[in-house]
Structure formats: C-alpha cells, structure tokens
Amino acid sequence: MIAKAGFTVQTGGYSGVMEAVSRGANEAGGHVIGITSNQIEIYRPIEVNQWVVEETKYSTLQERLIHLVTRCDAAIAMPGGIGTLTELSLVWNFMQVGEIPLCPLIAVGKLWQRTLSDFLRTDYVIPKDVNLIQFADTPKTAIDLLKSSL
What is the pLDDT of residue 122? Predict the structure, then answer.
C-alpha cells in the first residue's frame, strides 16, 4: 500500500514485518531501502531480506537507528519489539525537541495504543507533543493518515 501510494519504503531490512513490508513494496513496483547493521548480524546471524533493492549498512546499531529516524519523511510503526519501540520513541522525541523536522508519525495497532497510553496523559507529555503521534487501527488507515498528512 505504501508503494502503491507513491512512496519509497525504508525498513530495517531484515525479517518479519520488515520483510513483509519490503516484499509488498517491491512486488508493487516500489523502491525498497534496507538499513542494516553489522552489530545486529553479529548478535543474530541474519541477512538482508531478498526484497531490498538498496542496502545501507552501518557498523553499529546506533548508526542504523540514527539513519532510520533522521532520514525519513514519515514514520509508520507496525507492531514490533524493542527495536521498533526505540525507533518510534526516537522519532517522537527528536520531533519534540526540534532535532528533526515534524513529519507524520503513525503507530499501527492496539499494541502501541496500550504501550503508550500512560505517556499520552498530559501529566507526562504536554498536549502539543501528544499530538505529534497518530494512531491507526489498520495499515490502510495508516496509509490514509499518511496521504492526508503530506
């Protein structure tokens, strides 16, 4: 859906949701960029998925994370693990303090709504910063939000 909407797709480049997104975008004729890291491949022997057209590999996870969160025009976080939570948090925090320009930040699925619900209270995060993140129940809703945001 992202590629069909005319966007280039950048993922972490490995398996799971990253591979599914890469495959869908590639099969739809989109350009797929994978941002990988030697450090991840030492931790967990894995290779870039076959659907990535352009790979950028860094030595460290930190370099990879900085690339992922600073070199995007929008961020869509699908349900994931610690790495996805880190990326979502970094994009949100970097926009909050002006480290990166404001861009659509969309968290897909109930997992993120549950995970972030306490932070979305105004005794933790001020309203203008709460509004930096949008929630979508489905990938289709996320794409609709993305298209309406750009």
Answer: 79
The predicted model scores a pTM of 0.94
Domain 1-71 class, CATH top level:
alpha beta
* Average confidence (pLDDT) per 10 residues, the chain, 150 residues: 94 96 97 97 96 98 97 96 96 97 97 92 89 96 94
Three-state secondary structure along 81-113?
CHHHHHHHHHHHHHHHHCCCCCCCEEEECHHHH
Which CATH number among 3.40.50.300, 3.40.50.450, 3.90.1170.50, 3.10.129.10 corresponds to the domain 72-150? Answer: 3.40.50.450
> What is the pairing mode between strands 105-108 and 134-136?
parallel
Q: Report which residue type is found at 104.
A: P
Q: What is the pLDDT of residue 150?
A: 80
Residue 19 CA to chain centroid, in angstroms? 13
Give the start-to-end residue ranges of the domains of the chain. 1-71, 72-150
* Alpha carbon separation from 38 to 35, 59, 64, 106 (Å, rounded): 11, 5, 10, 28
**Which pLDDT value is given to residue 9?**
97
